């Protein structure tokens, strides 16, 4: 039944050699890996205004465009820098790989932690923003905002578990619809005001400035608007997801991304300036602009709202494409559990997708799908990873001196300085609003990853054979020692004894722990009737600690083993076919096997007897 449901929801399983057919072309790679950056412009303008309007009121709109152009300049620097990263690191991994190779493993783990937090927040923020777009168009849905957001995260996870190719078609078309609808809105709004001379109304909520624009206020607004740049690194992180030539396709997508973000972000900020948009908790800035441009009850208004909601939801898909890939690289290096390396039935990194779903869905529930509460946590991690990536590339050019390394080093050096300053501004301005949580989580994640790596290294060291020679194996058969624990003479025990005889071992023992003299006498009588040539050893346990007594006996026997000899424990175990009936049994054999698994020279053989129910 489970397999049928899985096939219906996720589709048929794919062969490993079908992986190349699952990768992205430029046409579908653009919406999947760029939707985060493209969608960010829908709320970045609003975040800037939320800083400026309470202080500057009606005078907020002139510095809005200044902040927007400063952000666009930073975008261009990042795009030039990441094009160089794509050329130098075609295997993907982005900031983690760059920082690890050039700045050391600690810097790489900090970058990886920052990226992981950013991707989780990308999903949560994008889904919550998409939900806000829906409730802006349909205010009656406001009480169900958290539920809507949770359902949207679930659908995204299912879509990505179906595989890259299907998710690109499923999530790609809405991204293109958003671009077209927003560009139509920008062009229409500009024509109505500048050509048709329509005079937009001024909101009653706007007041006269309470103070002048200061550098601190400008930087605070700039740090809030930098959410428009989240997702720029996704293309360089996800190079292996592109079809060949992967590097060239990734560069094309990154260039197209920069052009689209430039047009949409500047256009939306310009419309916000002309129509005097005022941030509202229940109505997004995009909804206000489209209402002014097209009217409240027009088809285009609902198209803009629908495509905005979808693109904001799709933005989360960037994280679903990149975080599992980042986890697979970290797993390969031994810094997260190895399970994240495995591809699922549809050739996606399904364990990473499920982990991202669980974390982001938890954030949605904890913050009640409120975008503004999540936003202060958002940009710190991504700008820290930007900084480490740029610094790593700068060091790389100084070391290798490849090609035109001087101007490349200049670009990455400039990027390092600007992103580092921006990161500090964001951390300082948003520290008490929630950024401290991210700054605390990053070192915790680094510590945990180091502990995981330490464990894997210990396992490797313990299992490693330093010198392979014939002394490792005793070519003459070594007689084993067998102990078969028994509680009562039954069919399960008989099956275990019959199996023990197949091992042709002369050194066998049936072992019973005596906690009830009458029951032990019955067992000895029945055992005598079997007329076996295996000795029965009964040992009293006055404190009724059956497993502890048995384990102590096994430990004592193990001390007398020859070099390279093993002690084999054969455990009879009856199996209940109905899982829910397991709670009716004490699972002694499972507990015993768990304890025995920690003994080096002990082998465990479980002999199941399936009950006919």
Give the helices and strands as they follow along the chain.
HHHHHHHHHHHHHHHHHEHEHEHEHE
Structural class: mainly alpha
What is the topology, as strand order, of the major beta sheet?
Answer: 3-2-1-4-5
Helix content estimate: 55-70%
The Rg value, from CA coordinates, equals: 32 Å
- Biggest beta sheet summary: 5 strands, parallel
Q: Quick one: overall form?
A: elongated
Terminal residue distance: 20 Å
The parts where pLDDT drops under 50 for at least 5 residues are: 11-21
Q: In total, how many beta strands?
A: 5
Describe this structure in words.
It is a single chain. This protein is mostly helical. The radius of gyration is 32 Å and the shape is elongated. α2 packs antiparallel against α3 (61-88). The protein has 21 helices and five strands. Residues 11-21 have low confidence and may be disordered. It starts with a helix and ends with a strand. A five-stranded parallel sheet has the order 3-2-1-4-5, sandwiched between helices. β1 (481-485), α18 and β2 form a beta-alpha-beta unit.
